[in-house]
Amino acid sequence: MASWADEISAIIERNIAGFDARDTSTASVGTVIAVQDGIARVYGLQDVKYLELVHFPRTNLYGLAFNLEEETVSCPIMGDYTHVREDDEVRTTGRIVEVPVGDALLGRVVNPIGQPLDDRGTIETDKTRPVERIAPGVITRQSVNTPVQTGIKSIDSIIPIGRGQRELIIGDRQTGKTAIAIDTIINQKGKNLICIYVAIGQKNSSVARTREILERAGAMDYTVMVVADASEPAPLKYLAPYAGCAIGEEFMETGRDALVIYDDLTKHAEAYRNISLIIRRPPGREAFPGDVFYLHSRLLERAARLNADYGGGSLTALPIIETKANDISAYIPTNVISITDGQIFLESDLFNAGIRPAINVGNSVSRVGSTAQTPAMKQVAGTLRLDLAQFRALAAFTQFASDLDKATKSRIDRGQRLTELLKQPQYQPVPVEKQVMSIFAGTKGYLDDVPVDMVSAWEAAFYRYMDANHPELGQEIVEKSVKQRNKMSQELLDKLGAAIDEFKRTAAPRKEESKQAKAENALKATTTQKATQAP
Prior knowledge:
Number of strands: 18
Number of domains: 3
Number of helices: 17
Radius of gyration: 27 Å
Strand content: 15-25%
Helix content: 25-40%
Distance between the termini: 51 Å
CATH superfamily of the largest domain: P-loop containing nucleotide triphosphate hydrolases
CATH topology of the largest domain: Rossmann fold
Shape: elongated
């Protein structure tokens, strides 16, 4: 403290000595008195505002007025802070930190302050938005009742997501959290939903691979990627999700629907902890500052569905949280669980057992529920969660199969087939009409006589058969249930049941074909994996 006082005294003496020659512009001027791990402590800047951009003229870097103290301002530096020195001049800009927004960002990869990271030149837009903003109020919102189709059977049928909802994706590392997010983006092709993918603290190779997957699927046309990679300083990682949210809010407030994915908020909280500890904010539980809950709540509360008087747009949030040893009771996971409208819990044991996506149905929930489902899905999937819950409760008794009564054994058999039916290859989302048809077959008992190891082959053959012989049924499901929001009529259900019976009699794969089907599926999975890993 004594050294800072000496430096401040020297600065005051220099300012007095050169008073007549001082710059009379409206910008407040300060001086760097210390630089610590990307945080500059600046004396002066009397008129600076919270979160105002400040400029370091000598290095042409920008910082953020983050901690307004009595004599000094702590400014995280956005860029290569190693070039900032003591006694450097700092000037206010009069602008709160903001990010470019609008359609010009579609298909682009940008950093958290809107600078392009791809090779497609400058971003031509004159619109900007502050990265921090108060969430829409209750009066401006309406209830969530329109689905976000992820293309993932187990989510769309059991844990539905609505436009304007906040649904957490949580699980250990390498359990498929990002894969669910990418599948969801890929499935939005032609569905009028703009996607913003925010990558926080990831390797550049991972970000490049994600971009390559989205480009091959044609999804970058309606997607914006906001990237603060692992090599970036903590201030940019801190800003990244707020910048992505601001980009999404522009689409929401112009009457469109947007989806923003924060991958992941664990690294975001760690970046905020780094900044807070350096500027000496008091640490609390797990060394996080006391306002770490507010860090995420003010971000996620900005997801909303606006009513017709305010344009009718929506912003859906899919935050991702990484756990350790499946511990969802840790500090940051419990914070975000309490903020969001439900969670999709991915369990490493299920993943290792070959159940992909590895969704634990018991710990996963959507607090919007069937309100966000299409009426057709609500009809066929109503008993699916119960069937799976009963199966998991009884699964421990499968080793005593000879002692089980007929009803218990039939529940276990159906549960095994439903579990197989909900398995799904990566980056292959399923259209909602096909989901409805396959889940109808599973819950109504049409799969009860199909061997468990042939369910996947049966499903693939069933889709091909319906496309070739009964395309009108899928079109009717889309037209009446998805677009018109009506239930499937009994006549349509009877037609679907008759088509399944016809398929089973004439085209269903036989047991002797299972080995060939397995080999084909393994080859297809290997090809897909190689394609996604290509540089």
